[in-house]
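Progress report, Aim 2. The chain analyzed during this reporting quarter is listed below.
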Amino acid sequence: MCRWRRDFSFCDGPGGLRESLYGKHQPFIGAYFPDRAFAEQYATCISGADFTGDRLGGLPIIVTNHRERSAFNLCPYQGDESGLRPVIAYSYDREKILPYRYQVYLDNEEIDVDFAPSHQSAVYSLTFEKEGPAYLVFNSRNGQLQVNGNSVSGYQYIDKKTKVFLYAETNQKPVKAGVLSNGSVNYNETSVEGINAAIALSFGEDVKKLGVRYGISFISEEQAKKNLEREIAAYDVDVVAKIARNDWNDALGKIQVQGGTKDEKTVFYTSLYRCYERPINLSEDGHYYSAFDGKIHEDGGRSFYTDDWIWDTYRATHPLRVLIDNERENDIINSYLLMAEQMGTDWMPTFPEVTGDTRRMNSNHAVATVIDAYRKGLRGFELEKAYIACKKGIEEKTLIPWSAAPAGWLDDFYKE
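Predicted structure tokens for the chain:
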């Protein structure tokens, strides 16, 4: 059983960002990136350990939806090869969490970790302080990985139909690499598929510092590589973190506060920061994967957003976005209409996620989101099309929560 934890976070506002909530990311990026909260969630899922435990289950690569799932795993290691595992449990210290950077010291392994995210890519800097050969282990919990020189690529299923793809590079070529299975590495194999598919890269005893950069995609491994090449040119965490910090200051700087105490400003900007956690932008070079029909679409120059748990966001987050970012709010509502069409029902979604609409909660809170936006002046979507999707989502779908079934006799009885 997985127990999820939420880290409380603190932002001083523009020019002084502090600790973050959930995964490291940039405003409305294509996926969430990991911090300790999600590393612990991953460890909890793998081991069944309590979420208050003092271990990290490796370093996750990407959080694929709000607080529930992460994909892939990166484990640096130094020492005897027999200690390699698909997922290594780390004790840790000197942790520093920022919205645009994550730093931690893996004290038993004596490895210093520095991480920064871009939009659909990220970079790690790993410093090895012990004696002995240095290794990296990449893991896909349910998928496929292959190694080719200094690159590792592959995919992981995050449900029965949706894959997330990875393309990663190291700044040094490994001395050797192979498939890690049952506590040993087969250096004659360079590709592996299945549950806990793991690739181990050996860098020898002279390597004390490694850079790892990677791109992610919901379209393909080739697109993951393109995303990396578009966003990160080198292995410099400082450069990527500075860009991300500036993006966050631009986003939070849309609202300037006068008066109040420092603590009150901290609470305000932390709350504003959280408004940027969802939904996420899945467009990649003009295309996006939609789990609502399992196909890849052209976005027509308009970003496609998902992972918007509307029951949580319709009261305040959407109305706020109408005021400070109405173009993006138009794109989000248009994404709803595309989802309704792609599902083949024309039902307005309720809990759109990366893996599709999970139909949680009662009623349909996207209805309130649409009419609120329209009454406040947004005209960047087809009102008639939105009305039809809202009406069908209420009348044709059952009112029973957590169900995608059509309305039945119980709904008829309720309406009568």
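The two ends are 41 Å apart (CA to CA). The CA atoms of residues 106 and 337 lie 46 Å apart. These observations will guide the mutagenesis work planned for the next reporting period.
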